[in-house]
Amino acid sequence: MASEPSTQSRVMFQAGDKTEEPAHRKLGKLTVKYNRKDLQRRLDIEEWIDGQLHLLFDCEEEEIPELEIDIDELLELTDEGQRTRLQELLQECGKPKEDFINGLLYRIKGLRKMSGPLKK
Questions:
Q1: How far apart are CA 52 and CA 90, in angstroms?
Q2: One MF term in GO for this entry (predicted)?
């Protein structure tokens, strides 16, 4: 069988175009623009918020009222404005909310507002 090269399968590789290289470099710039630590910190805060809302409303996720806490919106407000906005959002909650509000305000201190495509 080794003497019949026409019956053997061959695998050929082609060199990639150089047009793909700039796309790779753009990806690197995005990684630098959105610091991985900042993204991870924001994700941790969002997960904390989700867990705390389950405790505050004492129900399953499907039963939590439609509630959107926009971190970027909060970052645009003064400290008192942040507290007021959170109290407005949580007015339907019957449980004490001060610990949640204080915890969230503590966690977002020093967080930078995100701009562009990564914001939902």
A1: 12
A2: protein serine/threonine phosphatase inhibitor activity
Determine the Cα–Cα distance for residues 44 and 65; give it in Å rounded to an integer: 22
Structure-block tokens of residue 14: 């082609």
The answer to whether 92 and 65 are in contact (CB under 8 A) is yes
pLDDT at 60 (0 to 100):
62
**Residue 106 near residue 36 (C-beta atoms within 8 A):** no
pTM: 0.63
Residues whose CB is less than 8 angstroms from the CB of residue 103 and which lie 6 or more positions away in sequence, other chains included = 48, 52
Quickly tell me which residue has 């910190």 as its tokens.
Answer: 41
Contact in structure between 65 and 53 (CB atoms under 8 Å): no
Nearest to 67 by CA among 109, 110, 100: 100
Rounded Cα distance between 105 and 53, Å, is: 15
Two structure tokens written together for 45: 């805060």
Q: Do 67 and 50 touch, CB atoms closer than 8 A?
A: no
Asked whether 105 and 82 are in contact (CB, 8 A), the reply is yes
